[in-house]
Write a structure and sequence with these properties.
The structure is a single chain. The chain is an alpha+beta fold. The chain has three helices and six strands. The strands form two sheets. The protein has a three-stranded antiparallel β-sheet with strand order 1-2-3, with no helix packed on it. Strands 4-5-6 form a three-stranded mixed β-sheet. This is OsmC family protein. Pfam families: OsmC. It comes from Pontibacter aydingkolensis. InterPro entries: KH_dom-like_a/b, OsmC/Ohr_fam, OsmC/Ohrsf.
């Protein structure tokens, strides 16, 4: 079983989360809800987690295919439900940007496999009712 320790360390809602290896993530509430920009908001952290999870998948797949990936970035945009008590992610769109001496079809397939099959965070969001779309931009250096 994995464990995370969470401590309030800044203002009313500024937290530091520490994993078992000592890695620290900073979280906070939005300014409009009393936060002070100490860290990312908890719902944003889900999008960050999905990006990291998917990034690891895509890079790993392309590495196994001996593709020369030289640059990698993502943009993740999401829209939440409009509810009073809580609001889940309703839609998420991911834009993958890959550069290098890589086969565009292999790169797009790696992105598809990540979002639709391997990324556990994406699957968690999907099971909560989120629709995830994606696109991949591939360019040579």
């Amino acid at each position: 079983m994995e464990a995370i320790e969470l401590k309030r360390v800044s203002g009313e809602y500024g937290f530091e989360a520490t994993d078992e290896q000592g890695n620290i993530a900073r979280l906070d509430n939005s300014l409009s809800s009393g936060g002070n920009n100490f860290g990312v908001r908890p719902m944003q952290s889900l999008l960050i987690a999905m990006g990291a999870c998917s990034g690891i998948d895509v890079i790993s797949i392309l590495k196994k295919q001996r593709q020369d990936l030289q640059g990698y970035s993502m943009k993740i945009e999401g829209e939440r439900e409009k509810q009073e008590d809580f609001s889940l992610w309703k839609t998420v769109h991911v834009t993958f940007n890959l550069t290098g001496n890589i086969d565009a079809d292999k790169a797009k397939r790696a992105c598809q496999l990540s979002v639709e099959k391997y990324c556990s965070v994406a699957e968690t969001l999907r099971r909560a009712g989120c629709t995830i779309t994606w696109e991949a931009n591939v360019s040579e250096v």
